[in-house]
Amino acid sequence: MAVDFEQAKQALENGIAEAQELLKDPGKIDALLKQLEEKLKDVPVAGSVLADIPQMVAMIKGYITGAYTNVSIKVIATLVAAFIYVVKKQDLISDEVPVLGQLDDIAVIAAAFMLCEPELKAFAAWREENAAAQA
Length: 135
Description:
135 residues
């Protein structure tokens, strides 16, 4: 059974209060991002690429807030450029083309990950150390 837009919208509205509570606790947000990473790994074909997105977002946020600055601006700019590509409407293949339209977005995210992989791994280790220190 397909979920229509109104059902999806209602599901989001039902989760707003919980989301607002989570946003008050950076540790809980980190835990949510880690759970999302794990869940996205199970998506057929593109799961491994999609699973890296929360880590990329978390590193950008860490850099912007000053919590994590042990990364070059070039790496941050590469990740942001990938996200700009995904959200802009000037794709190599239009998103309106089923499946193929998303493949170029996935390819750009994958390329950004490969270019920034050492820094993302260092950030992941830093996150783990901070999580252990906070526990």
